[in-house]
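In response to a reviewer's request, we include the raw inputs and outputs for one of the modeled complexes. The two entities were modeled together in a single run.
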Amino acid sequence: MPTITAFENSPDRGRGQARDMRVRWALEEAAQPYDVRLVSFTAMKQAAHRALHPFGQIPTYEDGDLTLFESGAIVLHIAERHEGLLPEDANARARAIAWMFAALNTVEPPIVELSMAVLLERDKSWYAERLPGLQERVRIRLGELSRHISEANWLDGAFSAGDIMMVTVLRRLNTSGLLEEFPDIAAYVARGEARPAFRRAFEAQLAVFTAASRS
Amino acid sequence: MPTITAFENSPDRGRGQARDMRVRWALEEAAQPYDVRLVSFTAMKQAAHRALHPFGQIPTYEDGDLTLFESGAIVLHIAERHEGLLPEDANARARAIAWMFAALNTVEPPIVELSMAVLLERDKSWYAERLPGLQERVRIRLGELSRHISEANWLDGAFSAGDIMMVTVLRRLNTSGLLEEFPDIAAYVARGEARPAFRRAFEAQLAVFTAASRS
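The model returned the following structure tokens for the whole complex.
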């Protein structure tokens, strides 16, 4: 059984925005059991964890001789080995993988940059002047994605690992108010969140936060 | 023969920092000939190109029935179909793919954010105050990568598609002065640039810029 790592104390207070959520969701879609090892912020930056993850982050994935890091790589690894996360047709499979990269390299960076500004620059003199530009860069991506999705259920035909990455990336905007400006995208995220595998993964990460709050 | 797209007028003036460089390099390593279709900034945002790339960017990749976007996905597609870009051993192969994602999702975002600030915020009142923090976030990643590479030639054993992505991401720092602070990383980038396949790819994209400048 694989072991993944997750935050001992998730900074999102159980809202499922940490990157272990992507891996949990993929494992649930593939009906694969897994163990979780919780890591503190201190331990995450120490040598033992860095041996698994050179950049000192979560999640990692250990299965027998294999150790992996990067949520995209872990989800792709799971998707390649189990049914239901990548199409059988070679071209459709390549396109699903393209959507994984698009989620991580084209859609996520401006979302993270906006989140970082909200988190770290709220008290800076320039915050009010910078914020609209950051929001606009996210809006451009959401507009493009909205035109692509339109009335489709998923990014490219059947649900795939590309949707896991895209939905979890978009969920980082949950409290930004921006998703509501794009009803097609809000509906797409809701479709992802309604999947039983998503629910199970979400409850599992929430249970970690709830237990930590009690102790 | 596949056709890729590239900027008609590269904003980097032929320094090989646009994302088509990654795809050219991978195709050269795999000894695969390819065609290039040049796209203007206007055409890139129009319907015909958006049918290939929903986010209106370059590169795209067309080969028979298949159309792909996202440099990471294109390089992975090439690497899966030709020798020399991914290890044969399944675990080593998964780790090489993890490095592709690490380059694009962990190392590139703070580098792009720094570049964007230098490009777009140089005349803002807050530029001098924000810059050190942006540089420090890049330095943290470079420090972690430097500890990982140390005296190794490549990221994980033999040269792979992971190195193509990482070297091209790091080259975006060429004029920042930051690479020079990490001699292990500067040497790693230089090793990548010294590969004959890199040189051929670089000359090919430079020829586009040179021809455009003459016309």
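As requested, we also summarize the result in words. Chain A touches chain B through 42 residues (CB under 8 Å). Chain A has a mean pLDDT of 96.
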